[in-house]
Design goal:
The chain is an alpha+beta fold. It contains 4 helices and 15 strands.
Length: 202
Amino acid sequence: MLVDDNTCCNCVVQDGLTSPEFQSLDPNQIGNVEFYHEKLYTNGINCGFGDKRCPCCCFLPYLETMDPNGRKIGASQYICDACLLVPKVDVFDEYDRHTYRVRPDTCVGGLCVQCRCGGEKGRCCRIPWKIRDPITHEPVQSSHESTGEDAQVTSLWTGLKRACQKKNAYFLNFPEDASSNLRATLTGTALLIDMSFSEDDN
């Protein structure tokens, strides 16, 4: 859920059906909930035994984004198609219209994910998940025109923090035409990407 305390935004991720840390919280002390994400039980993005894994293509992970009154304002759905080695997420608006496809650029004839290197700090080694038109799959324009970058969800390299603390970091650059509801939904998309690739990482 996203909580607005008038000074900053705090993102709280619930673990499991119920989280003990929430039971004693007074909503008046943590500010107004702007939106939250929820899902029922799903499979992971792969299945198997031990280190022997294969892609899973049924009951895939998703997140629905809800407003404070419990009304769905968007959804993110992990997608399985013929390109099994290229992960992708479809984003839907409050009317279930397919609004964006989010996936990395590819190489080797579209078979593999293309990494990026050479940026500053956490961007020195990254995988940008470009936010794309749902039909043409071309990247859409970012809301930050000065950066010259496409809209994207980017996993950043966190160095030793990742090795020692299992800490992941993401940079989210919204499309210029995204409404507030779609921006909330794309925040859920970033969480879905993190959940899908980190939930089995012990």
